[in-house]
Every structure is written in structure tokens, then in C-alpha cells.
Amino acid sequence: MSGAVAWAVLCPLGTAVATVAVGNLRTLRALAVLGAVLTLASTLQLAWGVHLQGALELVAGGWRPPLGIRLRADGLSAVLLPSLGVVSALCLWARWDELRGGLERARSVPAWFFAWAALDALLLSADLFNLYVALELTSLSAVALIASDESASPVDAALSYLLASLPGSLTYLLGVGILYGEVGVLDLTTLAALPLHSKALRAAGALMAVGLSLKAALFPLHAWLPQAYREASPATGAFLSGVLGKAPFLVLARCAASLAGADRLGGTGALALLGGLSLAWAALLAFRARRALALVAWSSISQAGYLFLVFDLSSAAAWHGAVLLAVSHALAAPALFLSVGVLRDLSAQDRVAGIRGLARAVPVAGFSLGLAALTLVGLPPSGGFLGKWLLLHAAFAEHRTAVMLTLLLGGLLTAAYAFRLVEGAFARAQPAMSVHSPHPVSARIALTLSVASVATGVLPAPLLALLSRGGGP
Amino acid sequence: MSPWKAWALAGVVLYALAFRVLFAETTWLRRLMALSVLGTGCFLVLVALAYRRGPDAEVDPVPHALALTGIVVSVAASGLGLVLARRQGAPP
Fold first, then answer.
1. CA distance A83 to A324
2. N or C: which end of chain B has fewer CB within 10 A?
3. Half-sphere exposure of A94 toward its Cβ, with a 13 Å CA cutoff?
4. CA of B46, closest CA in chain A: separation in Å?
5. Do A170 and B62 touch (CB under 8 A)?
6. What was the ipTM of the complex prediction?
7. Each residue of A370-411: pLDDT tens digit?
């Protein structure tokens, strides 16, 4: 069973390596499909293993830590590996459909699988340094994906992303180094039990938090990210925001679980505050956005702020809510990107006003837009609603009024910009359509993702049970 | 100040200087070099920490391993950055 821990990383990595040198498109497609199926199968097997046995562990190569690497699959990994894997595979399918030329397809597929492998490694890491390596690989793969896009200036966007994202992880690494110098331990489970009092440790914690906040584009360090999302194609933007955007938050969650707490490294309240500010500010900018994909880009940054609110809460139910929110966002944000992308391609122009009335032309895309907006705003019975409900409950139990108010106001702010999209798309207006043909595959993938995001709210029990069974972050 | 602390301080100074250049308005190439120096500063801190137990005690191999892995990742990132900068052609 612990072999599944290795396969979850080796399958996408092997596919990435295998597809780099392949020129024939049919072989490339076959390899990509095979790789995706094998990876999903291994993640499901891993989830099943966690369900049966609790947390799974694997010591790579038999070399013991601290010089060797120990991989660990707990409840968080077991829930997120299959869900993010499914989203990755579907976004890759949408991307394949979007691209007409063979060269771009050949460039995107290996980078996609590298990113997937890096994400799986991140979810299975059990020590601070492995988290750094996996996070760095995720960023580098994202840069490669942005550079292989067909936007106006992909290389510019890729360089900006690289130069903003890498300092974040290096700052995190500096913090890890200082922490190691003080305590001598990198393993997360061991760190959770150690007393942590000293100025150097507080500095280390601050460096780690600042570095990861930069990577996660948390307010006020968020200015570098929207251009990468809105310049990218819808499928790439979907993958970046829905899947890879979760990576810095997950690293922060793992670190906070081991290092933060009463009488240990503090500062988590500040993270929650910045999350709330991020939520509000990005929602405001989304409301004022003129271009459709820019609105969706700001919406992703705003939704990421929701996740940071969990750092002010400390109960297990709060983590369950945050994970549920993360899963439903990982499903809804790509659905939003893809459906808005389909509608935008069909309209004559790039602006939000351009998608007016188009839902009637492509009902599938319109319906997925509506469902995705439902989840993002947090209306029942979607997964977004249930995640926010759990967070609200936990905030009430711990008397965190500010978090409660932020959650409620956040729903209102999200509804404001989501309404712009939904009202526009479903308006009774004569749409101005261009001669571009719509992408039926993208529309159907958007539908699948948005239905799944609502389904996580209707049937959350397996997810929550797996989360409790395997143990929290 | 013990030698390892001096080296660690030098690493932090390199990090700070590089950070300053990274967010300044200069050419891509300068910012990529600043990124490389940023990494070097962090790795210098890590390597210096290996000698924190004193001149006569055993050297801690873990920070060396961390620094080596970090150097590999940094080289890959610099390579990617240079390929992108070259493809872009003229400086901004």
C-alpha cells in the first residue's frame, strides 16, 4: 500500500519525461491519456489505502531521515491528490482541445505533467525542505506553461512570474535554514512536539510566512499574479488558478500546523487579516474589471483570501471547512475560466459586456458559469457553501467575530462580481457573435467541473471521513 | 563573532542586496543575476550553519545536503530564466 505513495509521484513524472521527446501527435496523446489514467488510479489507490490504514508513509530508497526523504500521505493528501488530479487531467484535456497546432501541444503536455508531479510531491512531503523543493518545481513548471501559451507576450508574462515567484520560495528557504539552525529538526511531525521560543525562531517563521505569502499573491504582495492569469489561455489559467495556486497555501498550512499555536510561533492572525484584505480588495477589482478574463483572474485571488482565514481558527472542523472550500474552489475556478473562455471566444470582443446574451448560444457554458458562480458565492447546496458554513461555525465557537464578518461580507462581495458575469451571460439580448467556432469539449469539461463542485456540497461525507481518518495537516 | 556567524551574516547581506536589485527597474538580465545572488545568499547561510557546533565538533551534513539540492534547483531556475530572456531578445 505504501507503494502507492511513490507511484502518485512517479506516474506523472514518468509521463512528463516520456512525452518530452515525442514528436508524433497520436503517440503523444496516447501517452498523455495513459499517464493521466495511471496517475489518477494511483492517487485513488492511495486514498483507499489511507481509508483502510490511516496515514501512509514511505522512506525513499530505504535511506533514513534526516539525510533521506520520508513521504507521508495523511488525510489532506488523500483528499486533495485525487481531486486536484482530476482537475489537472480535465484541464489538460481542455488545453489539448484549445490548441490547434501540434507544436504547442507538444510543448504544453510535458510541462503539465511536471507540474502535476510536483504538486503530488508537495502533498506527500513530510518535512520543511521537501516542501521547498516541491513548491519550487511547481513554480518552474508554471513558468514553462505560461511561456508556452499563445497570449500577446508569453515570454514577458513568464519572466515576471519567475522573478516574482522565486524570491518567495528563497525567502521561505532562508526561514527554514534559520529554523534548522536553532532547532536542528526539519521533520514536520517532530517539530509539532518541540517547544519553540526564541527570537531567531520568530524571525524564521516570519520569513517563511512572507515568502509563502508572496508566492500565494496575498495582499499586499498580489500585484504580480493577475497578469499571468488574464494573459493566459482559459485552460492554462484554469490549471494555474485552480490547482497550482493552491500549492503555497498548502505549504503554509503544513507549516502552521507544526509550528504555530499557543505559546509557539505566532503571526497566524496577521495571515488571516491579510487574507480578508485580499478577499475584499480583489473582489472590488473584479467588480470593476473591464475584460472578462481579468474579472475571473481577480476572482481567483479573492477566493484564495478565503482560505487564509482558516489560520485564525484552530479546531479540526475549521480545517475540514478549509479543505472542502479548497476542493470546491479547485473545481469551480477552472469551470469559471473555461466557461467564460468559451463565451469570450464566441463573442466579438474581450470585455465583460461582450458576453451579453451568449448563454443562449452555448447553454452548456452558460449553465456551468451559473453553477460555478453558485459555488464561489457560497450558496447552498454547493461545496463552497458547506465549506464556508463549517468555517463560520468554527469561528462562532471560538468567538472570532472578525472572521465571521469577513466570511459573510465576502459572500456578498463575490456575489457582486459573479452577478456581473451571470446576469450578462443570461440577459435577453441579441449577442454580437464572431465567426469563431466554440469549443464544445471545453464547455462540457466546464460543466463536469461545476457539477462536481456542487456535488461536493451535496455529498461531502466521503471527503470529510477520509480527512478525519488520515489525520489533519 | 564566531566565523560561522560572520559567514551567515554575509549570506543575509547578499540576500538583502539582491532583493533590492530584484524589485528595482532594471534589465531582465540584471534581475536574473540578482535572483541567482539571492539564492547564493540563502545557500551561504545554510552552509555556514553546518559549522555552528564549533570549530572542533563534527560538521553537520544536513545543511550541506540542503544547500546542494537548493543549488541544483537554482541552476535549473536560472537556466529557465536565461532561455526566456534570450527568447525575448531586446532588454525591456
1. 11
2. N
3. 30
4. 6
5. no
6. 0.94
7. 999 999 998 988 889 999 999 999 999 988 898 999 999 999
